[in-house]
Give the backbone structure.
Amino acid sequence: MSTIERGGKVAALVSGGVDSSVSLALLKNAGYDVRAFYLKIWLQNDLSFLGECPWEDDLRDVRAVCELLAVPLQVVSFQKEYWSSVVSYVLEETRAGRTPNPDMLCNARVKFGAFWNFIESKQFQWIGTGHYAQTKLVRGKTKLLVSPDLVKDQTYFLSQLSPTQISRALFPIGKYEKSEVRKLAREFSLPNAERKDSQGICFLGKIRFDEFLKHSLGVKRGDLIEYETGKKVGEHEGFWYFTVGQRKGIKLSGGPWFVVSKDIKKNIVFISNAWRGAQGSRDSFVARAVKWVSGSPPRKRRMEVKIRHGALRIPCRIRAEGASVWTVTLPHKEAGVAPGQFAVFYDGNECLGGGRIETEELSSE
């Protein structure tokens, strides 16, 4: 029996988008006792001068969908919790020269963390979301499985959930392709059925991330250095605007240019226009603070890893180095292994967990 058939009282998180709206409709049609919740996490009060925050448009669509489906809606302000759990981490990691992933922490610390604490006293058994992922109960443990839509699959962003958190999760659209979800939205006559998918970081809306960083961290001019020659080829406004593997935004002739590494003490960004070869690539790294969805490390030491969100998985071997610290070895050198991003491990269709990437560049801190 799949999780969508279990029944019970569900707190459904809705954003105004098609995915969460179809999830809400599927939960209602499956006979759950459903309540919809919209988490208001926009930072528009502090950042409105940077650009438009469309949370009012989102909330309008949420209300229209809930009215159509006759599902009660509650709007909850989680700005304080989001800032302390996610945004402060993003700024701390960026300032340290790493590339943080706010969606990872939003799921583990807010949606299935602080939000669960908020609803727990109200007798909810489940949290329903519009993630492209699946769960399966096997011998009393809940496994996290990939979506058949490997492009939309979001298990990467759910890999930091604890066993208890994943056991509370319902992902109604997880077994569908995106095209099927669109079709369901039209069949349900949802008012937002043709709405485009949102892009960017959830707490910023249409505000550009580099503008947010400039507001929060300021400007600190430094040198762009060619990796192979050590020659200065340009200047930048701060190492925190760059991530290893980045290609866009390096406005120099003679490219394309890629970010190879950063020296955060000297505020230097090393770039190369030949980096798609061996230069700057690596075939091993350390993953720290690794969390396993099952609660304990798998017996296997050969599996696959994602070093960023996307469909690409790379064969790897892992070796324990201590509590929650693992060395990851790849069969060949890969470009864009970025400190601060997450390595997420897979065994077939199962997402096993993951941890934060570190490389030797961090020794310069």
The domain at 7-130+172-187 is CATH 3.40.50.620 (Rossmann fold). The longest strand covers residues 282-292. The chain has three domains: 7-130+172-187, 221-272, 282-364.
